[in-house]
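[Discussion] Sanity-checking designs against the backbone

I'm trying to build intuition for which residues belong where. Below is a structure token string of 399 positions. I'd appreciate it if someone posts a full sequence so I can compare it with mine line by line.
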């Protein structure tokens, strides 16, 4: 039986080109002091026109652990094997182009040991030529919850520790604070989470500027999507408690979307395209409330489709093809600069819980069909740095 988590009403999305009914496509800065949103103001039927833009910087989440919507964390059935992981990543990495590894689940509650663990991971990956971005989770202990000055001090410490590595290029501060369902997969249920997001972003950017870590960009992410009243409350809070300092601290904003899993819970093959269009347009509408301009690029921080009971390998490959192509097609429409697939390998390929099977590989590092497909799509669609000038071309036009 296919396991579905029916959390919210399914949104209807039509076609592939743009009309917005019930959704404002916010591709310009918000007006000064926008009114509070009414529930549902950014939801409805969306149609968007594909528009080209700069090509996308791709990557993947290499870690095996996945956050669970219900219950606590589920440990992987088989441990990670660094040599096999690096071999798999080398196959996905496009020649002559950047490939970003998103390291997730650095918890504040893990303290110094967590920082040391992730410093070692960052060193391992960057030594092999990868770029790294880091998810810095609020996730406090009971004693830490709500102590925002202590959290801000921790965020600054993370910046100071990771910023000297010039291949660590991004920090995502907190995780899915808009999404109030799970303390394992998101930070929203913890006391002070919204203030942790705002003040954490501001502190991270201030520290990076102070230390002149110019490569280290700062952002936060949003999960597609919570109930309309919950979303309105979240975005109005960012407007009322963040303001210009918060918005000016953002280098990018993240979107997490998993069409055909929990929201929306059902998609016909190919319907993932319209679901992503809806996710991006809904996000731009909401983001206008605190004044986040369309010039701030979107990172697709998490996007995936799991295998498991009722979910075939071929269906995963079809969904991947549809979603990656949609992101590329609409990159100019919504100003999307980055994309990360979630994730490299399964935590437990034998489980009845699809949340452990988002990988492009099984838990034994056996590639699924989607693995080779993602490699092909990345090679085809990735951004590539400009060719370096040689002594023969320097000083004259390149024909």
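Best answer:
Here's mine. Compare freely.
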């Amino acid at each position: 039986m296919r396991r579905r988590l029916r959390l919210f009403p399914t949104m209807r999305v039509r076609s592939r080109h743009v009309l917005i009914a019930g959704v404002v496509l916010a591709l310009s800065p918000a007006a000064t002091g926008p009114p509070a949103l009414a529930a549902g103001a950014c939801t409805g039927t969306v149609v968007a026109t594909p528009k080209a833009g700069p090509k996308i910087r791709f990557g993947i989440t290499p870690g095996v652990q996945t956050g669970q919507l219900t219950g606590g964390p589920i440990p992987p059935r088989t441990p990670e094997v660094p040599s096999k992981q690096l071999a798999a990543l080398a196959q996905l990495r496009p020649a002559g182009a950047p490939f970003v590894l998103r390291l997730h689940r650095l918890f504040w509650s893990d303290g110094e040991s967590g920082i040391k663990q992730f410093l070692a991971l960052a060193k391992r990956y960057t030594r092999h030529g990868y770029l790294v971005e880091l998810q810095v989770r609020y996730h406090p202990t009971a004693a830490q919850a709500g102590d925002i000055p202590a959290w801000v001090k921790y965020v600054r410490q993370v910046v100071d520790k990771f910023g000297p590595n010039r291949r660590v290029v991004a920090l995502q501060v907190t995780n899915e604070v808009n999404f109030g369902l799970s303390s394992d997969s998101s930070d929203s249920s913890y006391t002070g989470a919204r203030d942790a997001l705002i003040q954490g972003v501001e502190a991270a950017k201030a520290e990076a500027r102070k230390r002149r870590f110019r490569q280290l960009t700062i952002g936060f992410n949003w999960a597609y999507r919570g109930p309309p009243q919950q979303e309105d409350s979240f975005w109005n809070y960012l407007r009322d408690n963040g303001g210009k300092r918060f918005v000016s601290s953002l280098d990018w904003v993240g979107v997490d979307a998993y069409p055909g899993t929990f929201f929306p819970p059902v998609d016909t093959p190919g319907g993932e395209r319209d679901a992503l269009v809806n996710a991006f347009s809904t996000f731009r509408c909401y983001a206008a409330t605190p004044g986040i301009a369309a010039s701030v690029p979107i990172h697709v921080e998490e996007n995936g489709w799991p295998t498991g009971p009722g979910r075939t390998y071929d269906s995963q490959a079809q969904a991947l093809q549809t979603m990656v192509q949609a992101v590329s097609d609409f990159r100019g429409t919504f100003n999307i600069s980055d994309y990360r697939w979630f994730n490299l390998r399964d935590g437990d390929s034998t489980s009845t819980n699809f949340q452990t099977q988002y990988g492009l590989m099984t838990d034994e590092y056996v590639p699924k069909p989607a693995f080779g497909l993602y490699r092909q799509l990345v090679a085809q669609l990735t951004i590539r740095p400009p060719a370096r000038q040689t002594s023969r071309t320097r000083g004259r036009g390149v024909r």
